[in-house]
Amino acid sequence: xxxxxxELFLSHIPQGKxxxxxxxxxQFVHEYVASKFNMSAMRAGVSVREIKNNRNGLRIFKLRIxxxxxxxxxxxxxRVRSEYRxxxxxxxxxHHDDQAMRGRMIxxxxxxxxxxxxxxESIDEFIDQQYINFDYDPNRVITRVINVETMGxxxxxxxxxxxxxxxxxxxxxxAPTDAPTFIFGSAGSxxxxxxxxxxxxxxxxxxxxxxxTYSSYLVEDAKxxxxxxxxESPEYRADELLKRVHFYHLNDYISQEVSIYQTVSYEQFRxxxxxxxxxxxxxxxxxxxxxxxxxxxxxxxxxxxxxxxxRVNMNEWSLASDLVEVIVKKGLxxxxxxxLVLHAEKLYEAKTRFLDQYELKAVLLMHQIxxxxxxxxxxxxxxxxxxxxEQYCLYxxxxxxxxxxxxxxxxxxxxxxxxxxxxxxxxQFLNRLMNQNVPLxxxxxxxxxxxxxxxxxxxxxxxxxNRNNLLFSGDINQTIRPxxxxxxxxxxxxxxxxxxxxxxxxxxxxxxxxxxxxxDLANQVVNxxxxxxxxxxxxxxxxxxxRGEQHPIYYxxxxxxxxxxxxxxxxxxxxxxxxxxxxxxEKKNFERLTQQKGAVFTVEEIKGIEKExxxxxxxxxxxxxxxxxxxxxxxxxxxxxxxxxxxLYVALTRxxxxxxxxxxxxxxxxxxxxxxxxxxxxxxxxxxxxxxxLSTDNQFYKEAQLYERRELYEQAITEYELSQLEEAKTxxxxxxxxxKNKEGHHxxxxxxxxxxxxxxxxxxxxxxxxxRLNYLKALVFQELPFAQIQQEFEKEGSDVLTxxxxxxxxVTWLKRFNKLYSRHLxxxxxxxxxxxxxxxxLKG
Length: 844
Known about the structure:
The protein is of the alpha/beta class. The chain is built from 35 helices and 23 strands. It holds the Pfam family UvrD-helicase.
């Protein structure tokens, strides 16, 4: 049986009473189920009364908890979809002495309570009066979905991977379609939740579904949410559904398929540029991260489909003469000597109607040419790069020349060192796809696609057996990673790779994460962007806040350094606070100010995290020159400036409840745009700034675990240290080892992790470092089945027994290996014995 619980209800349970209330709720639900959903048949000990005369036609019932407390609920209401009609819907919790009976509910006007109510009858009468105008709209109230079996988890981690009732806008995204689907939505709009629900619905069919995301922690989050939905749906066989949905971190999946496990990270690229290209770096005058962004997103990651020549040699490609004749006759191409040159735009036009057999072959031929081009060109040609307009590249001609030269040197470095980056392995993966060496999926879902390069997105499209069976979600307003993601280009790539032009788009605008004030500020950022850069109809929208809480946005004047330091130091010692800076350079400045390393986040690092309280430090000051240009000059339609709006948007929308800005040199013209949204301070008061709640050791420890899962090892170490727990010492050592691995010191990291007995993590490091002997050692110490270890080595074309026994060096752990192998032989022998026994029985 499904149970619905509003966040309003959860937020109004008095602190310290949670377990007691949950027990009462559980008792009531079990009685309701035992009475076969007949309220009148419930035992006499359950005291339930109906609220009289609700003006919105909503039947609301009061369950007595004690003399002054009531649980308000309804059931069989047409406010929810038919599958929830029998569900109990817990609407609100009334507590007689918490001053909450003053119209706190949705749709109730404020009324003063003039006398303290003591009699139960007067309390009930008062509740009846207060809820006379109350209404419930699942599109405007956050509602959780649980069942009888999982009620015990209701108050454990209220925000952690809960299953929510989908509003009408979200539910519409789940409708079956015969075209690819794009979901674009604001921060906190439920895109991931929709994706998981889609996977759940699809898994009811015997098909193979892939769920991809760019971050390993998002994969784990997606798995947890899928498991949670299964828990809330005991009517389905969970084991069957789990087999059908495969969750992948995109780069890990591609690495497995191409058997390449070491890709160059930004940290390694940064070291290479600083140490080997200092002169070029100085000449460019561009930040290293911006250089990495240009190389990853444009020079190596873009698909230049609009600018390439779709030309094939007719003899080499063995094109039939009748096909060439029809293509030319229909104006879909022309012959140039021995080459056929296809007219891409004409073929796109042809896709809008029914394709005959020749047009279809021409379209498929165009796809083949593009695939081959992408395989043969690790970079877009220099002449194309130099001609890109400002919506793709904001650098001058001289800077582009230097950037392209740096990219060529980078490619030479990769080749010389036998290394690759993620665009390189994507191209190798595409080659395997073209040769049909990769199993396809019946349906492909991809989350956060704005974090992917175009070549990676193209690979995802190719992974779908039927390219109508695609669901992509993302938000262009959160594009701060080095991709140069553009909604129109992704749609265009899909049109290019498909045989028709149809696709479906959904735009989600309800924000379930942040308070009204935070959402209002986000909308102000949108307004300013439209005003200065012009309206982008596809991507400029205003969000609707769903959370009812209201908290002011603080602006702390940095002209008083001692007061500012008090605020920062307090924030650093609260587990529920994250301090956000715009980039690595500002992070180093902050660390010099506070003498603390790893205590703050860049906007890039905080992107996948929500916090109760966000302090933004110099997020606008850092780009003062750019903001002054945006505000004071004519930059209409110059989309390169959208990045600064996105950076500010991502930083502020990490906050659930409280948001504070500290700016040392904010452009006055920018401050004027947002001044009405701010409550200003120039002296520190932890109560006024809502920082008076202290944090426990366990709370710091739990945050540290969260950061570690998100591979934010510096921040995790800081939180582990703040916890002061003895067990945190091992966690700190593990994070330090994982930091080494991230920086490219794979073997050293593997040794450290082996010492900590973190064998699984050590194996991954050794594999990345191409240390096969230590990789095998880590697998053996994990005590994996021998057959699984053998399978891992067979992937790379070698036999594990031959590899071990022909080593020139002494294998100190050989006894341990032999023990695993002997277990394997014993199992095989037992299988053979059973087979012999079966044969004898059959003969007998």
